[in-house]
Protein backbone atom coordinates (compact mmCIF):
# COMPACT_ATOMS: atom_id res chain seq x y z
CA UNK A 1 0.00 0.00 0.00
CA UNK A 2 1.15 3.50 -0.82
CA UNK A 3 -0.37 6.60 0.78
CA UNK A 4 -0.31 9.87 -1.15
CA UNK A 5 -1.62 13.39 -0.63
CA UNK A 6 -1.21 16.84 -2.08
CA UNK A 7 -2.43 20.05 -0.49
CA UNK A 8 -3.66 23.03 -2.46
CA UNK A 9 -3.96 25.94 -0.06
CA UNK A 10 -6.42 28.51 -1.37
CA UNK A 11 -6.84 32.22 -0.58
CA UNK A 12 -8.77 33.11 2.59
CA UNK A 13 -11.62 34.61 0.55
CA UNK A 14 -11.71 31.76 -1.99
CA UNK A 15 -15.16 30.44 -2.88
CA UNK A 16 -14.83 26.78 -1.83
CA UNK A 17 -18.01 26.11 -3.79
CA UNK A 18 -15.70 26.00 -6.82
CA UNK A 19 -13.88 22.99 -5.33
CA UNK A 20 -17.18 21.34 -4.36
CA UNK A 21 -18.48 21.82 -7.93
CA UNK A 22 -15.24 20.44 -9.40
CA UNK A 23 -15.42 17.30 -7.24
CA UNK A 24 -19.11 16.84 -8.11
CA UNK A 25 -18.17 17.07 -11.79
CA UNK A 26 -15.03 14.87 -11.88
CA UNK A 27 -14.96 12.84 -8.65
CA UNK A 28 -16.58 9.82 -10.21
CA UNK A 29 -13.73 9.46 -12.72
CA UNK A 30 -11.68 7.47 -10.19
CA UNK A 31 -14.56 5.30 -8.97
CA UNK A 32 -13.18 2.38 -11.01
CA UNK A 33 -9.48 3.30 -11.29
CA UNK A 34 -7.31 0.19 -11.47
CA UNK A 35 -4.82 0.01 -8.58
CA UNK A 36 -6.62 2.57 -6.40
CA UNK A 37 -7.66 1.38 -2.97
CA UNK A 38 -9.40 4.63 -2.13
CA UNK A 39 -9.31 8.35 -2.75
CA UNK A 40 -10.95 10.72 -0.30
CA UNK A 41 -11.64 14.12 -1.88
CA UNK A 42 -10.96 16.35 1.11
CA UNK A 43 -11.65 20.00 1.87
CA UNK A 44 -10.78 22.18 4.83
CA UNK A 45 -12.50 25.55 5.14
CA UNK A 46 -11.08 28.43 7.11
CA UNK A 47 -12.88 28.74 10.46
CA UNK A 48 -14.56 25.31 10.20
CA UNK A 49 -13.38 22.49 12.49
CA UNK A 50 -10.52 24.68 13.65
CA UNK A 51 -8.96 25.06 10.20
CA UNK A 52 -6.82 28.18 9.71
CA UNK A 53 -6.94 27.78 5.89
CA UNK A 54 -9.04 26.89 2.89
CA UNK A 55 -7.44 23.79 1.45
CA UNK A 56 -8.22 21.09 -1.10
CA UNK A 57 -6.20 18.02 -0.10
CA UNK A 58 -7.17 14.65 -1.60
CA UNK A 59 -5.78 11.59 0.21
CA UNK A 60 -5.09 8.31 -1.60
CA UNK A 61 -4.38 4.75 -0.56
CA UNK A 62 -3.01 2.90 -3.58
CA UNK A 63 -3.19 -0.86 -3.88
CA UNK A 64 -0.50 -0.89 -6.59
CA UNK A 65 2.37 1.35 -7.61
CA UNK A 66 1.22 0.94 -11.23
CA UNK A 67 -2.16 2.48 -10.40
CA UNK A 68 -0.51 5.41 -8.65
CA UNK A 69 1.93 5.96 -11.52
CA UNK A 70 -0.76 5.78 -14.20
CA UNK A 71 -2.66 8.47 -12.31
CA UNK A 72 0.33 10.77 -11.71
CA UNK A 73 1.64 10.53 -15.27
CA UNK A 74 -1.77 10.56 -16.94
CA UNK A 75 -4.60 12.96 -17.71
CA UNK A 76 -6.17 12.77 -14.21
CA UNK A 77 -3.35 14.51 -12.40
CA UNK A 78 -2.64 16.76 -15.39
CA UNK A 79 -6.20 18.08 -15.12
CA UNK A 80 -5.52 19.13 -11.53
CA UNK A 81 -2.21 20.71 -12.58
CA UNK A 82 -4.02 22.63 -15.33
CA UNK A 83 -6.57 23.97 -12.81
CA UNK A 84 -4.38 24.66 -9.75
CA UNK A 85 -0.71 24.37 -10.73
CA UNK A 86 1.57 21.44 -9.88
CA UNK A 87 1.51 20.71 -6.15
CA UNK A 88 4.10 18.87 -4.09
CA UNK A 89 2.92 15.26 -3.83
CA UNK A 90 3.59 13.76 -0.43
CA UNK A 91 4.13 10.00 -0.37
CA UNK A 92 4.30 7.49 2.46
CA UNK A 93 4.97 3.74 2.53
CA UNK A 94 2.03 1.83 3.96
CA UNK A 95 2.30 0.37 7.45
CA UNK A 96 -1.25 -0.79 8.20
CA UNK A 97 -4.88 -0.57 7.13
CA UNK A 98 -8.04 -1.65 8.96
CA UNK A 99 -11.72 -1.37 8.13
CA UNK A 100 -13.77 0.16 10.91
CA UNK A 101 -17.15 -0.93 12.21
CA UNK A 102 -18.81 1.61 9.88
CA UNK A 103 -16.93 0.34 6.79
CA UNK A 104 -20.09 0.32 4.67
CA UNK A 105 -21.04 3.93 5.48
CA UNK A 106 -20.31 7.04 3.43
CA UNK A 107 -17.69 9.04 5.36
CA UNK A 108 -18.46 12.61 6.38
CA UNK A 109 -15.04 13.61 7.70
CA UNK A 110 -11.43 12.49 7.64
CA UNK A 111 -8.73 13.12 10.22
CA UNK A 112 -5.03 13.27 9.41
CA UNK A 113 -2.34 13.38 12.08
CA UNK A 114 1.34 13.62 11.21
CA UNK A 115 3.94 12.62 13.79
CA UNK A 116 7.70 13.15 13.57
CA UNK A 117 9.84 10.12 14.39
CA UNK A 118 12.32 11.23 17.09
CA UNK A 119 15.98 10.52 16.32
CA UNK A 120 16.54 8.79 19.65
CA UNK A 121 13.74 6.23 19.18
CA UNK A 122 14.30 3.07 17.10
CA UNK A 123 12.18 3.32 13.92
CA UNK A 124 10.86 -0.24 14.44
CA UNK A 125 9.25 0.84 17.73
CA UNK A 126 7.59 3.83 16.12
CA UNK A 127 6.11 1.91 13.22
CA UNK A 128 4.91 -0.92 15.47
CA UNK A 129 3.12 1.68 17.62
CA UNK A 130 1.57 3.16 14.44
CA UNK A 131 0.08 -0.27 13.66
CA UNK A 132 -1.42 -0.34 17.15
CA UNK A 133 -2.86 3.16 16.71
CA UNK A 134 -4.48 2.01 13.45
CA UNK A 135 -6.14 -0.93 15.21
CA UNK A 136 -7.37 1.29 18.05
CA UNK A 137 -8.74 3.91 15.64
CA UNK A 138 -10.57 1.26 13.59
CA UNK A 139 -12.25 -0.02 16.77
CA UNK A 140 -13.80 3.37 17.59
CA UNK A 141 -17.50 3.94 16.94
CA UNK A 142 -18.18 5.52 13.56
CA UNK A 143 -14.86 4.70 11.88
CA UNK A 144 -15.11 3.73 8.22
CA UNK A 145 -11.41 2.90 7.91
CA UNK A 146 -7.98 3.76 9.34
CA UNK A 147 -4.46 3.65 7.95
CA UNK A 148 -0.89 4.43 8.95
CA UNK A 149 2.09 5.06 6.70
CA UNK A 150 5.65 6.35 7.03
CA UNK A 151 7.90 8.68 5.05
CA UNK A 152 11.46 7.48 5.82
CA UNK A 153 13.01 10.45 4.01
CA UNK A 154 11.58 12.94 6.49
CA UNK A 155 10.90 10.37 9.25
CA UNK A 156 7.24 11.15 9.58
CA UNK A 157 4.31 8.84 10.33
CA UNK A 158 0.87 9.78 9.05
CA UNK A 159 -2.32 8.47 10.64
CA UNK A 160 -5.46 8.74 8.50
CA UNK A 161 -9.02 7.86 9.41
CA UNK A 162 -12.42 8.20 7.76
CA UNK A 163 -15.50 8.81 9.94
CA UNK A 164 -19.19 8.22 9.25
CA UNK A 165 -20.16 11.18 11.46
CA UNK A 166 -18.88 14.72 11.84
CA UNK A 167 -17.54 14.35 15.40
CA UNK A 168 -14.41 12.18 15.21
CA UNK A 169 -12.96 10.85 18.45
CA UNK A 170 -9.33 11.50 17.61
CA UNK A 171 -7.01 14.47 17.24
CA UNK A 172 -5.54 15.91 14.08
CA UNK A 173 -6.54 18.02 11.13
CA UNK A 174 -10.18 17.50 10.22
CA UNK A 175 -11.32 17.55 6.59
CA UNK A 176 -14.79 17.28 5.05
CA UNK A 177 -15.10 14.35 2.64
CA UNK A 178 -16.67 15.61 -0.59
CA UNK A 179 -16.55 12.23 -2.36
CA UNK A 180 -14.99 8.81 -1.82
CA UNK A 181 -13.74 6.69 -4.70
CA UNK A 182 -12.98 3.23 -3.35
CA UNK A 183 -12.69 0.76 -6.23
CA UNK A 184 -10.06 -1.40 -4.55
CA UNK A 185 -10.68 -0.93 -0.85
CA UNK A 186 -11.37 -4.65 -0.54
CA UNK A 187 -7.87 -5.30 -1.96
CA UNK A 188 -6.05 -3.15 0.62
CA UNK A 189 -4.20 -5.58 2.85
CA UNK A 190 -5.54 -5.53 6.42
CA UNK A 191 -3.24 -5.38 9.41
CA UNK A 192 0.50 -4.87 9.44
CA UNK A 193 2.23 -4.51 6.05
CA UNK A 194 5.51 -6.26 6.73
The gist of it:
This protein is of the alpha+beta class and 194 residues long.
Protein model, in words:
The protein is an alpha+beta fold. The chain has a single domain, classed as Alpha-Beta Plaits. 23% of the residues lie in helices and 37% in strands. The chain has an 8-stranded antiparallel barrel. A hairpin with a 4-residue loop joins strand 8 and strand 9 (156-163). It starts with a strand and ends with a strand. The relative contact order is 0.25.
Write the layout of secondary structure elements.
Blueprint: E1 2-6, E2 8-10, H1 17-26, E3 36-44, E4 54-56, E5 59-62, H2 65-72, H3 75-84, E6 89-99, E7 109-116, H4 123-138, E8 143-151, E9 156-163, E10 173-181, E11 191-192
Antiparallel strand pairs: 1-5, 1-6, 2-4, 3-4, 3-5, 3-10, 6-8, 6-11, 7-9, 7-10, 8-9
Keywords:
194 residues, Alpha-Beta Plaits, 4 helices, alpha+beta, 8-stranded antiparallel beta barrel
Major β-sheet strand ordering = 1-5-3-10-7-9-8-6
Mean pLDDT: 96
Principal-axis shape equals globular
Instruction: Measure the end-to-end span.
Output: 11 Å
Give me the CATH fold name.
Alpha-Beta Plaits
Amino acid sequence: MHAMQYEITLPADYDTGIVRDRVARVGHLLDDWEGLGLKAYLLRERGVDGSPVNQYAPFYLWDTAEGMNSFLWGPGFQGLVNDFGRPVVQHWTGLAYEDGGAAGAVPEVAVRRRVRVPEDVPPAEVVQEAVGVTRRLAALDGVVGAAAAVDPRHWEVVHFSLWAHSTPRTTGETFRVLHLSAPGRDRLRRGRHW
